[in-house]
Each structure stands twice: as C-alpha cells, then as structure tokens.
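Thought: the user wants the 3D structure for the chain below. I'll pass the sequence to the structure tool as-is, report back what it returns, then summarize two notable features.
Action: structure_tool
Action Input:
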Amino acid sequence: MADLHDPPLPWSTRLWFAFACFFRVLFDPRFAARAWQAREAAALPPAGRREPEQLERAREGSAPPLAEAREAAKKEPAPAPRATPAPPSPPAASSALQLLALLQREGRLVDFLEQDIASFGDADVGVAARMVHEGCRKALRGHAKLAPVRREDEGARVTLEAGYNPSEIKLIGNVSGSAPYRGVLRHRGWRADELSLPTPVAGHDASIIAPAEVEL
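Observation:
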C-alpha cells in the first residue's frame, strides 16, 4: 500500500490511470478482486487499532463471489423497455376508390381519362369534356362539401405573416428570405370541410371502380 507521505500523482496521470483501472476491473475478475481488497484495506483503521476480524478480512479479501453477484443481478428489477413509437398506418384506399367509382358512375371520368383523344377534334373533345364535367360535378357536390382555402379573389395581392400554415399555402416563383411574404394569389386552393360516402354493402369489392357490362 502506498505511504501517506508519497508525493501525489499529477492530474493527467490520474486521469489515464482511472481509465486503465476502469477497463481492467471490467474485464479482469482477478484484478477486480485485488482492487476490491485494496479498497477494503484502505478503509480499515490504523494498524494499532485494527480488530482481528478486520485484519482477517483484509488478508482474505472481501470481494463477493461471482455466483452471488449474478444472483443479486437477477433479483434487481429489469429496466422497463422503451416504448417504441408505432409506425404510421398506411392510408386507407377504400374511400379514395369509392369516390373514384362515384366520379366514374356519374361522369365517366375514368373512361374519359383512359381514352386516347389525340385523334379527336377540338369540338369532339369539348363535347365530351362538358359531359364529364357535368356528371363529376354532380357526384362531387353530392358527397363532398368544399371551400376555398383563401377567400380573396385570384389575382389579388396578399401578405403571409410568419407562422402561416405551409400545408395550406404553397409558395411559388422566386422564393427567398423569410416571412412576411407579399405576393399575388394565383390559386385560392380547396379544402374539404365534409365528405359523405355511401356505406358499402357486405362483400363489396372497392377495387372494382366500374363493373364490366354485358348486354344479352
């Protein structure tokens, strides 16, 4: 054991020695037992005042057996597992397919979009578009309540203060700097305030946008 009158170690040496002892105690059981014994011996009273039981304990070492240490570790309550955030659920496709089926039923939207109109004249496309527009508008207004995001007229100058909702307003053009932004409203946007879709019957297959039709 070091004498009390030994010169103290410098801070840099103590820092290195502390790291060395930490890993040695962690991976070397014999060294850990000797370090534990030295620790107990340093806590004993001076030699002239030591009791026989303390001397015997210092000689034999008081490091707990490995089996006892393992049993004590088993009795300690295990740390509670961290709550893992649930992954976001995929969006439900049935509602979107149901709305698409309504647009197809009322306005033949899918037929119009899947039709190759490159060879059609402008007049023919205009007539078809008018029919699709009328039917889809009827379906949309019958099952959804829409409202513009901005109330100003398109072309009006608007100011966006700091804290505006980027999901409601998209900046276009030469975007630089920070809010407030001043620009021209090019599109008012749309927001769905209500959506009411028919309740599907049992056995309904939402992936069927429009059934095939066979005339007999």
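Final Answer: Structure generated. Residues 72 and 78 are 12 Å apart (CA to CA). Strands lie at 144-148, 157-160, 181-184, 190-195.
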